[in-house]
Every structure is written in structure tokens, then in C-alpha cells.
Amino acid sequence: MSRGIHSITIAAPAKINLSLRILGKRPDGFHEIETLMAPLRLADEIEISHAPGGEVALECNDPDLPNGPGNFCVKAALAFREATGLDHGVRISLMKRIPHGAGLGGGSSDAASVLKGLNEISDHPLVDGELHQIASTLGSDVPFFLHGGPAWCRGRGEMLEAAPALPARSLLLIKPPFPVPTAWAYKRHAELKESPASPGEETPQRLDGVAIFNDLEESVFSKYLLLPVMKTWLRGQEGVESSFMTGSGSTMVAVMDPDSPEASMTAIREKIAVEFGTSMRVLRTGWA
Predict the structure, then answer these.
(1) Does residue 231 contact residue 243 with C-beta atoms inside 8 Å?
(2) Is the pTM of this model over 0.85?
(3) Is 141 a catalytic residue?
(4) Neighbour-count burial for 53-62, b at 16+ CB within 10 Å, e otherwise
(5) Residues 15, 75, 116, 175: which is the catalytic one?
(6) Could you confirm whether 96 is annotated as catalytic?
(7) Would you give per-residue pLDDT tens digits along the chain (288 residues)?
(8) How many CB atoms are closer than 10 A to CB 124?
């Protein structure tokens, strides 16, 4: 196989779920979902290059992430090598900017970027459909990050339908100092759905006609009591158009009103430190 160019640097964007509906349990153990996801300007940076030998080597600026076979980047590189017969080493350098355990899809985005990057520097041995097939074996969100824009994702997340462009907005992402395990969130959701005490749905917020709702909020909020308090607090702040949890959490999103002044975002960031502590990580971003 020709090696094409030697290396490539690629951005791996975060995402948020503007709407997440859980429609039921599938025979394969996954959940049937319908979700509107949108990529963000917040992104990891990944450099991928050919290397001597036959190993997949990963360097990362975040010491809390594994750099072996359990890392999404390594999994993606190994899957690409198996699919294409690539017989030489791969070196990956990951600059992590997306918080992990946050519902922002960082690991899935990293995996998709490795697939795209390796395909580019290897003279495109795989067509889009083949990349999508590999992506769907790595994780439910990975195919979305091959898409490159907002999309409705169905099935377990691998069935994509392009969505219209979203109206321009500034976003604040507030990441508490704890993760939320995705598997636990879905399990807790199923338990609450079977409970007769489960409360009804709240009136959804909207963005340009799209209903903003997250079926996992109830289950996650039942344990992580800070999050519903923060959601209510954010909705009461000047300049905030809507607020919600993305994915399985723990990140809360504040969508700013397009007419809100710059000072509103600055004030909210300062107030978060006072109201919820300096351990909150607050990131400003927008649509990719």
C-alpha cells in the first residue's frame, strides 16, 4: 500500500445533544435513540503519522487518559489497520482540550479523526461507507463525527440524517469536577421509566423551532443534585436563552440569546465561580 503523505494534523470537535430521546431497548442490548447533535468549535488536536515498526503509539497531554488499547485513538488505528492490511507503525499525538466524562463526545470524535486521518495519509484505501462501518463498531457516536455537520442520529446513533444549519449562537459549557458514567445513566433511565412515581416531562425549551430535551436528565439529576440546581440557576441568568445537560452529562450548556451583550457571558462566568465554586470548568464556544 502506498503511504501517501507522511503525517496530518486534524481537529476533533466536541458535540452537544440539542435533543436526546430514548425510544426503547434494542435486542442487541443498545438503546434505540433519536438525537440531534451538533459539532462545536471546541476541539482536540490530533497529529497522525506513519512510523517504523508495527506498533500503534499514542502520546497525550492528559495523564488521566490511558494510552494503550483502551484509548479510542488506539482502537481506531488498530481497526483501520485490520480493515486495510496496513503493515507499518502509527504514531498519534493527542492534544486533549475536550473534558472527558462530560457528554461532549471527545473520545468518539478522536476515534473518527484517527480514521479520517489515517485514510488520508494512506491514499484513501477506504470509501466513506467503509469508514462509517468501522466507526459504528467503535462506538455509537463515532459515525456522527465522520459526518461533519449537525445531524439527526437514529438507531443506536449510527443512522445519520443531515440537519439544517443552526442559527448563530454563543455557548457556555460548564463541566463539574465529576464525570457521569454513560452506562449507569441509561440503566437508571430504564429503572425510572418502570417506576410509577416517575414525573412527567417538562415543557421543552426551543432553538429556532427545535425542541430541546434530554431524556437522561431525569435519571442523572436524581443522583447528581448539583446539576438540576445549575440548570435552574442558568435559566434565570440575564442573556441565557436556554440551558440543559448534554448527552449523559455531566456538562451543562447555556445557549446565549443572540442579542445579549458580551458582558452577560463574562458576568455568568464570574457568578459560576461564586455560586458553584472554582472547580467548575467553564468553556466558551459555538457551532463548528
Answers:
(1) yes
(2) yes
(3) yes
(4) eeebebebee
(5) 15
(6) no
(7) 444 578 999 999 999 999 999 988 878 777 889 999 999 999 999 999 999 988 999 999 999 898 899 999 999 999 999 999 998 899 999 999 999 889 999 999 999 999 999 999 999 999 999 999 999 999 999 999 999 899 999 998 889 999 999 999 999 999 999 999 998 999 899 888 877 655 555 677 999 888 999 999 999 999 999 999 999 999 999 999 999 999 999 999 999 999 999 889 999 999 999 999 999 999 999 999
(8) 11
Rounded CA gap, 120 and 150, in Å?
23
Give the three cell numbers for residue 188. Answer: 437508571
Which set of grid coordinates corresponds to residue 235? Answer: 435559566
Determine which one of 75, 141, 175, 231 is catalytic.
Answer: 141
Complete domains list, the chain, with CATH = 7-162 (3.30.230.10), 170-286 (3.30.70.890)
CB-CB contact of 21 with 34 (8 Å)? yes
d(CA 198, CA 216): 13
The gap from C-alpha 135 to its chain's centroid, in whole angstroms, comes to 14
- Grid coordinates belonging to 49: 503519522
Task: Residue 270: count other Cβ atoms within 10 Å of its Cβ.
Answer: 11
Strand 89-95 with 56-60, pairing: parallel
Alpha helices in 44-88 (DSSP H): 72-84
